Amino acid sequence: FLPQVDSANAGRVLASDAAVFLKKSGLTDLVLGKIWDLADTDGKGILNKQEFFVALRLVACAQNGLDVSLNSLNLPVPPPRFTDTSSPLLLSGAASSDLPWAVKLEDKVKYDAIFDSLNPVNGLLSGDKVKPVLLNSKLPVDILGRVWELSDIDRDGMLDRDEFAVAMFLVYCALEKEPVPMSLPAALVPPSKRKPLSVPGAMPLIPSSTSTKESHQSLPPVGILAAKTPLTQ
């Protein structure tokens, strides 16, 4: 990343250059401001190589739902993601503020194969069909419950192909000892589920009316794992 913002190869990054580059992370200006303040330790408006790496690390933390703080620097997170016009994962005709999907193409192919092997009906898998796959990971039930809650983006008690890929992505992250976020990071929301008019950097929230939200708040947090029957509306 450094050569992209340090064109003069001076080993330092100016605030103006860094701002343009960091905006490609899709994070809000508020979060990016906090990241800059933590990285620019002497407040000179210039980052040296080490400080720039701290900024990148904090971007990765924010993209994965972790706190933007120096305490998060030692936590295991995937590398930060920045929109790149040459990236095949960018939505066609998408605004530059749209993030590429965190699920890599080669992984998606594997997840799709598992999805198809579970005999989806009308392109959907019920909770009962997904449950054995999740339990097979041997992860704690509360973690798996959160994986289900995060991946069932439209809250219909079923997972489509993209939602299943999100579930698998989160399971593999958890198996690598990475924390499962409390809310779905914007980069993990499948392109098919993103609102076209979302605020740049804002997490696309689940599109549902107040009444459906209320009815689902009464469900057990563990979701499908606690229920013997699949969740249906």
UniProtKB/TrEMBL annotation:
GO biological process, one term: endocytosis
Domain (EF-hand) ranges: 27-62, 139-174
Domain named EH: residues: 1-78, 107-195
UniProt GO cellular component terms: clathrin coat of coated pit
Annotated protein name in UniProt: EPS15 factor
Record lineage: Eukaryota, Metazoa, Chordata, Craniata, Vertebrata
GO molecular function per UniProt: cadherin binding; calcium ion binding
Pfam families from the UniProt entry: EH
Domain of life: Eukaryota
Keyword annotations: Calcium, Metal-binding
Family matches, as InterPro entries: EF-hand-dom_pair, EF_Hand_1_Ca_BS, EF_hand_dom, EH_dom
Membrane in keyword set: no
